């Protein structure tokens, strides 16, 4: 894509979002991680879905576009790197690997915007989502978030392309969250032990 864009005097526009960058759910380098400009880098996946849901209203962009957007919303989130039969849907499920995005975006907000420890985030998540997710599941996905956000994904954020900072909390190393790529998640993982089972 970069060669084609260069030949045409154009830019490669990234499609990855803030949630994917927080959870290291993007292919490093020339995959969906890198572009000349990433328009969605400051937008969490749950907001991307809400924007698509708004655009699916036929009055916004027409009935045909609305049906296309509805089909996008009905499709399971997947990187589709492993082929699957069309009738079976994608062979990979992103949320089965990294957790429900509504929970992970909740975790991201309270980590990035408020600086809360995992034990406090778990308490808030149970109050907000307890009817949908039991405490054990909240703790499981919060553990995944802590490990991926603090231990394994900063190296991808350190060289992320430019993009807009939509909210006060940003993962951009230039204007937002800055951390060493080889940092430790030990303090946050230790706090996870304070969450009762």
Question: Nutshell version of this structure?
Answer:
This protein is mostly helical and 197 residues long. It has helices at 2-8, 18-22, 45-55, 58-61, 63-74, 94-98, 101-112, 118-129, 135-152, 154-158, 186-192; strands at 13-14, 37-38.
Give your account of this protein's structure:
It contains eleven helices and two strands; from the N terminus they run H-E-H-E-H-H-H-H-H-H-H-H-H. By secondary structure, it is mainly alpha-helical. A two-stranded parallel ribbon has the order 1-2. Helix 3 packs antiparallel against helix 5 (63-74), helix 7 (101-112) packs across helix 9 (135-152) and helix 8 packs across helix 9.
List the main descriptive attributes of the protein structure presented here.
11 helices, 50% helix, single chain, mainly alpha, 2 strands, globular, 197 residues, Arc Repressor Mutant, subunit A
Q: What's the CATH architecture name? A: Orthogonal Bundle
CATH superfamily: Glutamine-dependent NAD+ synthetase, C-terminal domain
For the record, give the distance between the C-alpha atoms at the N and C termini, rounded to a whole number. 47 Å
- By CATH, the topology is Arc Repressor Mutant, subunit A
Output the number of helix runs. Answer: 11
Instruction: Report the average pLDDT across residues.
Output: 89
Question: What structural class do you assign from the helix and strand content?
Answer: mainly alpha
Q: Order of SSEs, N→C?
A: HEHEHHHHHHHHH
The main sheet orders its strands as 1-2
Helix content: 40-55%
CATH class bucket: Mainly Alpha
């Amino acid at each position: 894509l970069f060669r084609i864009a260069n030949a045409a005097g154009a830019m490669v526009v990234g499609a990855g979002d803030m949630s994917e960058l927080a959870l290291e759910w993007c292919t490093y380098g020339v995959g969906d991680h890198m572009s000349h400009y990433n328009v969605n880098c400051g937008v969490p996946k749950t907001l991307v879905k809400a924007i698509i849901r708004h655009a699916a209203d036929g009055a916004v962009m027409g009935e045909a576009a609305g049906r296309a957007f509805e089909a996008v919303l009905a499709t399971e989130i997947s990187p589709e790197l492993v082929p699957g039969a069309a009738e079976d849907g994608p062979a990979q499920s992103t949320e089965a690997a990294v957790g429900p995005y509504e929970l992970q975006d909740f975790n991201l907000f309270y980590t990035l915007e408020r600086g809360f420890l995992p034990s406090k985030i778990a308490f808030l998540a149970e109050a907000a989502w307890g009817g949908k997710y039991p405490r054990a599941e909240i703790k499981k996905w919060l553990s995944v978030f802590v490990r991926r956000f603090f231990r394994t994904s900063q190296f991808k954020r350190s060289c992320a392309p430019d993009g807009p900072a939509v909210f006060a909390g940003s993962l951009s190393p230039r204007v937002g969250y800055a951390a060493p790529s080889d940092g430790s998640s030990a303090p946050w993982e230790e706090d996870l032990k304070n969450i009762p089972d």
